[in-house]
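As a representative case, we now present a protein record of this kind.
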Amino acid sequence: MLSREMSRRVDEFAINEIGMPSLILMENAGRSCAECLMNWPVADPHREQSVLVLCGPGNNGGDGFVLARHLAVAGWNVRVMLFKEVERYAGDSRVNLDVLSQLGINIEQFDPAWSDTETREQFEKVGARSTDWIVDALLGTGASGVLRPPIAKAIVAANLLPVNRLAIDLPTGLNCDSGEASEPTFQASVTCTMVGEKVGFKNADAHHFTGTVMVVGLGVPVDLEGLTTDQQ
């Protein structure tokens, strides 16, 4: 199992020792999560699926941009919602955001002035279709402490809707190391977590927020995963 610090070391080792560019790590993460969604069983496999991807300003948001691109290419209806101004996105996340823009994928800014009701109404639709999935690509493993607006407001709205919910790596609001949930915490139907389960998942209460946990790869060698686990 991986702690927050160990998850960071996996990325650093892959980048600095193996020479894998961070952009490729992000691509592998987002693509793996998209594949989880595309393979998830649905009642009507012939019905077009609609997904709302909530993207924070860091690398977790960048994973969400990659997921959004792969789902759009696969024919899904995709809507991406940003939680910072476009110019606040940088590095690999900005690269993938710019790619989405070039592809004409629907990208919007979350408005902190929306009421709770308006937020839920915004989340209910992807274009003319009802939302099937909401993806949490807001904060990832690096976050800790009490959530603040506008992210807290978005999570409350997402949890109230009768949709499937996927968390990338870790549900926002759940502590990676302790498994303790803040108020609010994203309630995922499925969590696609990178390289290995997180230490906090051992907390029995965490399962209320993770849903089904799927471990996905980053293209990191198996011996690295074993080394990191041995250090736990």
Notes: The longest strand covers residues 50-55. The two ends are 7 Å apart (CA to CA). The beta strands are 50-55, 77-82, 106-109, 125-126, 129-130, 133-137, 164-168, 190-194, 212-216. Residues 4-39+51-142+150-226 form a domain with the Rossmann fold fold (CATH 3.40.50.10260).
